[in-house]
Design brief:
Layout lengths: L2 H8 L3 H11 L14 H13 L2 H10 L6 H5 L19 H13 L3 E6 L26 H15 L6 E5 L4 H10 L10 E5 L2 E3 L1 E2 L7 E3 L2 E2 L1 E3 L4 H8 L2 H8 L3 E6 L10 H10 L3 E7 L9 E5 L2 E5 L6 H4 L12 E10 H8 L8 E5 L3 E2 L5 E2 L6 E5 L12 E5 L2 H4 L14 H18 L3 E2 L5 E3 L7 H7 L5 E2 L3 E3 L5
Parallel strand pairs: 1-2, 1-9, 2-3, 10-18, 19-21, 20-22
Antiparallel strand pairs: 4-8, 5-17, 6-7, 9-13, 10-13, 11-12, 14-17, 15-16
Helix pairs in contact: 1-2, 6-11
The structure holds uridine 5'-triphosphate.
Length: 480
């Protein structure tokens, strides 16, 4: 590939810079197939190369994770200070928190952020994860389950709650088409702000060279849920929220059907505590459970990944036998708009994490290779790395059975499967029914649509004590 040939395809000027830029970072191989490409393919490849920050990629490969190394930090990890309502450990009565959250919702001061840009590799579903049909009876998709809850909360409080939905280049078009085809599950068009996160290249772990997905394309992956911060700001989302008077964001991930979207009590605790960032924690089932650990290190809250917490530290127990480092991260947060404004102005607020993953690639002969073992390094930013940047943070404990059932693994494989999440949803709704005095079999498959009831308070008003609930049962307003 000669410089003249690049110039001929792309026009003089910036194209000379392309090859010399690649040479500066030892990445000239990206133009290996140039001569075989059509003009359109050449343009596409050049655009992809332009969009990648090779300087950062090179630096990350040289330095590794450096200071972000969780294993070093784990040695100094302490349990985090936390509000634990179920244990009565609260600075104010629960009702006060609920009232504060309800007032914020009624005043239109709450927005929601939903991140749905991930590739969902472990689930192995051939559409964005949000389109997975998860409802145990209804087969509602993950998107619908969360949006139904959001619109039900908005109706309950007579308010509007804008949704800031993050996609990635891989999930964007399909997601938008799907939501529009379903009338955004009742969300008014002006309340939905979809924005796309950025990408980072996958790099060969052995050579540091950017991998190619095809002769005219780099291996690109979304830049992690932490990419939300920059992308929300760049898309005008923060400005939009400010204009609407939003002060608090409820944040969750698309793969948790139990996420208590815009829960008034959670928002209320954040407001009463004056927290810039709140994290909903659940007690870990066992020391090696695959959850991020919320810990305090040198007085600052942090999350240490399960893979970075040595088993001997994870297994430490209190005198009563409970786990010392008990707090598992649900990836459910409340953030203030002011905090986002402050940190989005600091581009390095979030470090990149390096992960070894399997990444199919095209080799020097143009053949597609599907590796059997991790061959690539990928770079991701995590939203929870904002914790140390927050001036005031709080951790609230929730009951796992009520708030957390992530869908990560493929059916039949691993702990966090769709069927486990369905069973968790069904079990929760069964318990609500029992609490309200209904007769329901212990193994009944039940599902309650949020329009029917968001919680036991609403459910009690809809069913009479002694009501018999069959299996499977889908309690929704239209079915009445
Ligand atoms: P995970 O880290 O579990 O990734 O994302 P994933 O894409 O769902 O699944 P794997 O690891 O490829 O199997 C947790 C949440 O963060 C979002 C995902 O969509 C999911 O809601 N996420 C993750 C993003 O929005 N962008 C990313 O770059 C990564």
């Amino acid at each position: 590939m000669s410089l003249q040939q690049v110039d001929a395809a792309l026009g003089l000027g910036g194209q000379q810079q392309l090859l010399s830029r690649l040479a500066r970072y030892g990445q000239e191989h990206l133009l290996r197939f140039w001569d075989d490409l059509s003009k359109t393919q050449q343009r596409r490849l050049a655009d992809q190369i332009d969009a990648v920050d090779l300087e950062i990629v090179g630096r990350l490969m040289r330095e590794g994770e450096g200071a972000a190394n969780g294993k070093l930090l784990a040695e100094r990890a302490e349990p985090p200070p936390a509000i634990r309502p179920a244990k009565g450990e609260t600075p104010y009565p629960r009702e006060q928190a609920r009232t504060a959250g309800e007032a914020a919702l009624r005043a239109g001061k709450v927005g929601m952020i939903l991140v749905a840009g991930g590739q969902g590799t472990r689930l192995g579903f051939d559409a964005p994860k949000g389109m997975y049909p998860l409802g145990p009876v209804s087969r509602r998709t993950l998107f619908q389950i969360l949006l139904d809850r959001l619109t039900a909360i908005a109706r309950r409080y007579g308010t509007r709650i804008p949704l800031y939905l993050m996609t990635s280049p891989a999930t964007h078009d399909t997601t938008v088409t799907f939501l529009e085809a379903n009338d955004r599950f009742g969300l008014p068009p002006e309340d939905l702000h979809v924005f796309r996160q950025g990408v980072m290249p996958a790099v060969c772990a052995a050579t540091g060279r950017v991998l190619m997905a095809d002769r005219d394309a780099l291996c690109l992956a979304p830049d992690g849920h932490g990419g939300m911060l920059g992308a929300l700001s760049a898309s005008g989302g923060l400005q939009d929220a400010a204009l609407r008077g939003v002060e608090q964001f409820f944040y969750c991930q698309v793969d948790n059907p139990l996420a208590p979207c815009c829960d008034p009590e959670l928002i209320g605790w954040s407001i009463l505590s004056g927290a810039e960032m709140t994290t909903l924690a659940v007690s870990k089932r066992d020391p090696v459970e695959r959850m991020g650990n919320i810990v305090a290190i040198d007085g600052k809250l942090r999350i240490v990944e399960y893979s970075e917490l040595p088993p001997e530290i994870a297994s430490r127990r209190n005198d009563d036998g409970s786990l010392r480092l008990w707090a598992g991260n649900t990836a459910i947060h409340v953030f203030t708009l002011d905090f986002f404004r402050r940190v989005s102005a600091a581009p390095d607020a979030l470090p990149y994490h390096l992960a070894r993953k399997k990444s199919p690639y095209v080799d020097a002969s143009g053949q597609l290779i599907t590796p059997a073992a991790p061959n690539a390094v990928k770079f991701e930013r995590f939203i929870f790395d904002l914790l140390p940047a927050a001036e005031r943070t709080i951790v609230i404990e929730g009951a796992k059975a009520e708030v957390f059932a992530p869908v990560k693994d493929a059916p039949g494989r691993g702990a966090d499967t769709p069927e486990a999440a369905q069973a968790a949803m069904s079990a929760l709704h069964r318990r609500w029914l029992v609490e309200c005095g209904a007769a329901v079999a212990a193994d009944a498959v039940v599902e309650i649509h949020p329009d029917f009831a968001i919680d036991t308070r609403e459910l009690a008003a809809r069913i009479h004590r002694g009501a018999e609930v069959a299996s499977p049962a889908y309690l929704c307003v239209t079915a009445q």
